[in-house]
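Quick one - first record:
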Amino acid sequence: MEQLNTFNRIQRLLKEKEKYIKSLQNLDLLKEKGEITLRQYEELAKDYSRKLQGIDEGLDTLKKGLKEEIAKLRDAKEQLDEQIRKTEIGALIGEIPPQKAKNQIARLKRKIDSIDKKIHLYESAVHSNLYSEFQAKLEQKAHKSAGKSIKTLKSLKEILEEKEKQDNNLKNLEELYKKEEVNKKEYETLKREYLLKLEEIIDQIESIRREIELYIGEIKVEKEHLENAIEEVEVRIKVGEIDEKEGKDTIEQNIKQIKKLDQHIFKLMKIMRANSPSQLEKIIEEEKGEGKEQKTEVKYHPRKKRFKISYATFGILIIVLIGYLFKDHLPLLNTESKIIAENTLSFKPYLMYLENSQHTIDTIPISPYEYVISTIKSTGERLMLPLSIKDKLLFLDEKGHLYLSTQKLDSITLIDSINSFVDCDPVYIGPYVIFSDLDGNVFVFNSNNLKLKNRIRVEGPITAQPVSENGILYIFTETGNLYSYNVAKDSILWNVKLENGGRATPIISGKYLYVLNAKGTLYKFDKERGIKEKEVNLDEPCESSPIAYKGKIFIGTLKGSLYAITMDSLKTFYKININSPIKTSPAASKGAVIVGDLGGTCYAYSTLDTTLLWMYNTKGPNILGISIYDSVVLVANTEKIIALNLYTTGTVAETLWERKIQNGVVAKPPFVYKGNIYLLTADGKIILLTAKKDLS
């Protein structure tokens, strides 16, 4: 945190230094033109020089501290390299199982990549004397990254081709088995083989996603610099330092650049809708024509602020938007269907919740009639799911900024910041609001005045939403650390280290805590003592959070399986093969469990047996979340929200209404509060949908 603040202060000083250097140059011009007196010139020049001297002294001090941090990062990188070498040797001599060694090395390399990115950013700041130099260094790095966009698309195409092949193999095998042309033993052997290959494919997809994440930080930094640069130009126009015509020309150029960016985004949207290698191949060919203009004229709505974008930035944005094909919310994000309702504090167990007993349904039923988009607001950064506090909505963005808004989004106010990167939904527990970040910090705010009360540090990034009961917070990190934390007393009660971490929100039920890791192992803990009671290994990778419903835990896996596990004995009650990755949490109500897959199909199964009640193809990729309210099932994919009838009697779900979102890429599950539906997009927009007419 301290280094990040130092880094930001250096950027501000570099910008300020460049401003005063420019002012001195303008002062010299005014003197040459005779527009100011010699006395005025000397006074202003002395003032600017004095300020520049102070800035240089401040920069020297800050850069010295940042150099020390760079040295520490290099030492940490060397230690990680040494760990990789030891792991490789351990695998060679048989001390470490090959698969475990492979996973350990992958984790260590991700840490090294993260350190390399920090070193590059810090060195760019340390070795720059002007703000423009700093931007140029980032631009140079971005150009190197941009060349990887086509390679990433090609890799994705190859993976889709292989997946399509394995899907066809599985489909043909099922048909042959039904026709009794293969016996049961052959069928099970081949099916196991194909599923293993599919698991490898999914691992490759995850690898691409991790590669994409390495560039997100650079994009955010560069975007912020460009926005700040535009604001500076606007100020210089107002004070008369820049000619108004020259300034307007600059703004016009920015508008043209943004139009081009919109055209590129329009093309990249097709990537997100691509379901076959042939569709992706067409997009790859388009990307090879670097300077080719789109014929489609994109309508551009005027905005108050505009920013320029370089081609290099666009190249990186290609990677990021591809990332949304595999990642729900951005930081990033990637959490599943968690609903915090108005009656959060009641903690009513098993009252139709999505994640755990504190996440109950909205107290006001959803109208079955059509909903329309009534309001769109933007904060500019990807948001986590909001909390409802005293008839207000509290939003947290991926950079740690806190916003307070009215229900109708009439006003959105920035109220505070935790100054760190976030990929985890906040938690409301009684008098406290909890925020967690990727550095392992847990921030406890007072919900009455939204002031920071205390903060603790745990080991590992927190991407799984913590859960709480009776003032005790349970935290699960990506490094496999599980904590029990007494919020009021600010003390950690116990800490358990699991073999693997994960992104899945734990479940509280009675005296037990259920935790699912990324490898598909489900643990049952005594939540008071932190003692493991039971565990079961599904041997399938999991990313989404499990849910509990009437004595069973329902889990969706990246292999495309839906499990029902008994809560008492952790025995498999049933397993259903959907054969398409499940990246978002199921939802359960009225004896039905609803699950959506990566291909955009939604399934409703009985919670008592494997009966398929109905299904629905959303005709769009990647279902991001499912919410059930009374008889209405809300399903969101990346481009629209659909309301289905839970009590459909046919094989295809009855559509009550659907709304296509043309204002951005949906990045979170639907959030419902007091009968209104809120959707969050990848670029920081909040979309409010309200009922077109009432039930009456």
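second record:
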Amino acid sequence: MQHTFVSLLTHHAKTRPDAPAMREKAFGIWQALSWADMALLVNNIAAGLHAAGLRRDEHMVVIGANRPRLYATMLAAQSLGAIPVPLYQDATGAECVFPINNADIRFAVVEDQEQIDKMLDIREQCPQLNHLYYDESRGLRNYEDQGLSAIDQLIESGRGFNASNPSFISGEVAKVKPSDVAAMFFTSGTTGNPKGVVHTHHSLLDRAIVGGKFDKLTPAEEVLAYLPPAWIGQNIFSYAQWLAVGYVVNCPESVATVSIDLNEVGPSYYFAPPRVFEGLLTSVMIRMEDAGGFKRAIFHYFMGVAKRVGPSKMNGTAVGLMDNLLYGLGNIVMYGPLRNNLGMSRVRVAYTAGEAIGPDLFSFYRSIGVNLKQLYGSTETAVFVCLQPDHQAKADTVGIPCEGVEIKLSDTGEILVKSPGLLKEYYKNPEATAEVLSADGWYHTSDAGFLDADGHLKIIDRVKDVGRIKGGAFDGAMFAPKYVENKLKFFSFIKEAVAYGDQRERVCVMVNIDFDAVGNWAERRNLSYSGYTDLAQKPEVYQLIKECMEQVNADLSRDGMLAGSQIHRFLVLHKELDADDGELTRTNKVRRGFIAEKFSELIDALYGDKSEQYINTEVKFEDGRVGSVSATLKISNTQVFVPIKSPA
């Protein structure tokens, strides 16, 4: 049976009206909204939107963090046959202009004053944007702009409309078909204007249902929704799968309280991009460095046991009696408390996606008893293409094709996908649609990879990023920048890395240090510093990062395919890469080409055998001001190892 988003809401409201659908933390207290409450809220908002003029097939922007009333607003739009378009809450006003004008959007529902200010600032560029609604009224009392009102007023208007027209909304809901457009998600626009990815009710819900069946999800699951709803990964897990499975979605109070809320909720189903898992690991390592010598020794001993035994236990493989006893003891004294501290004591299934996760980072979580798995997908595929079965999670693959998916490789090694979850089109962009969707229904992912002997998909890198070393000792060797970057980011001291080497005789890397981790390391050594730029250029910090680089080189030397990707030279950037400066996407993916152009003098210095390079860079501050950061950056060489050939 095929569904729509609102038909699933109606089903839960009828069959389990008093069960909690969502919880929201406000002023330190968790407040629950039942399925019946949610259905009533959606009905009233839908009536209010209709009375205000929202019509079928019209787009409506939603901007904000995870809030029950914003999710209810998306459902309300879908009840009318309209199309919600979530945008990133940390996007600048200028970044919102193209999506709003491209989709001819008149209605915007946002979270708070910050987002209202953003919409008001761009109104001259988006003259059709004449209906603005907000959830949080703080700071907006004296705003008298035309078309501006609270969601509360929308709800009251809807109640009045429903009182006079009690069956109107249910009649509109009945007209919505699974083949109708359900939502549109804009890509990050790394090489031009963002593209609107159009999805139907069927494409999103089919994948949500398949994912739920794969991991045997039940209404008893608890989920923490803390990532941007504009990211399709969060949207699938806290919206589409929420309705498909009927579990409870918990909305944290704020970004600052996520770690506390994670511990309070104790989710059983958890989803995060690699960056979040990296951050959690960094916080653990910082605390361990601050611990006494005895505690550190215990930690490192039992982590050695976990690394040796944990992955085998997670994969259901038998281990020796002594290893079993040692792991059990470690679980009591360390792994269990560590999982609890991370908020993962109840996690039954955890997924990471968005970009490749470093194999060492992946193994760390599985070794301490967290069932972390990888999935493969994208905005265009409604996320679920490949999933890792329990007991078959490999660090270097992203799982097997899930139900309904076909995969094949092109002559160039590009992964092609057929799936019920494929996008309908790129909005108003038939040329781009034709580039990724073939006439016979195959989607071109732009990823390079292959299926291993067990049928698991292995991703090497983006097709356009996979290159070759040209000249030198590794002439002709494959170069996979993302693979190198992910190995570097396993180290708690390295927050971001950008690798270059295609058509060059050696690989060079620019990195960001993790300011908290390296700052803590420096303070324990009485190493003074005045800020990020100063700390980043300390000789001691360069030596620390160099040791990380050389560990990665040692690992790469044992990989017959990627030994040529060893790092020869590196520098530590004087500023943190930032989406506001255009260096990262809103999902925190490196824009490698943009960075190469922006920091071309640094790349020239890396490949020009210079020992240092002065640079002055313009930066944007959170309040919109523009400034600059300048520094003379050191450039360091690293040890490169002779490739180790595996025995025949």
